[in-house]
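User: Design a sequence. Structure:
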């Protein structure tokens, strides 16, 4: 059966989950999608190249961007790392990691800032040096709180703040029946 078709007899409870590869997915992404909330509650999705120090993520953004005001004023941010469409066998089952994170401003003279800028330069090149020297660019750090990782039909997992898989999710999306690891 082609990966483009769905079996009408599909039962997710009979599917053997695939081994999660959280680190591999994160490492394969050069940017992260993030959802912020404006003052009036309007959601805003944006994307930015990121750095990773430990299990936390950093982005360098212009303070003139809408999402930057949202990041400063409301600290809760949803992150999504997602498999490249071209690499996906089935877009409905695309590998993805969604994280609830807490944002905080990073001071320019801090060790975290220096470490993140160095990583951004390695990952994204000379443009980072140019942006870092502009007055309107600031850095945010994002601490994961919890998340979920999906790598196929019937293969979804809860993830903790350390990006470690906690348990396999069972049942329909949004239900909280879980099978202990």
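Assistant: Done.
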């Amino acid at each position: 059966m082609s990966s483009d078709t769905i079996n009408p007899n599909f039962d997710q409870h009979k599917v053997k989950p695939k081994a999660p590869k959280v680190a591999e997915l994160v490492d394969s992404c050069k940017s992260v999608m993030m959802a912020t909330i404006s003052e009036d509650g309007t959601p805003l999705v944006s994307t930015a190249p990121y750095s990773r120090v430990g299990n936390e993520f950093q982005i360098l953004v212009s303070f003139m961007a809408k999402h930057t005001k949202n990041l400063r004023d409301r600290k809760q941010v949803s992150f999504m790392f997602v498999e490249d469409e071209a690499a996906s066998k089935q877009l409905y089952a695309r590998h993805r990691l969604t994280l609830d994170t807490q944002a905080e401003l990073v001071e320019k003279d801090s060790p975290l800032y220096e470490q993140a800028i160095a990583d951004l330069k390695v990952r994204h090149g000379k443009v980072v040096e140019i942006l870092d020297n502009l007055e309107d660019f600031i850095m945010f750090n994002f601490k994961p709180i919890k998340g979920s990782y999906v790598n196929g039909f019937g293969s979804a997992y809860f993830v903790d703040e350390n990006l470690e898989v906690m348990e396999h999710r069972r049942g329909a999306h949004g239900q909280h029946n879980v099978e202990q690891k």
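The CA atoms of residues 13 and 137 lie 48 Å apart. Confidence is low (pLDDT under 50) at residues 172-181.
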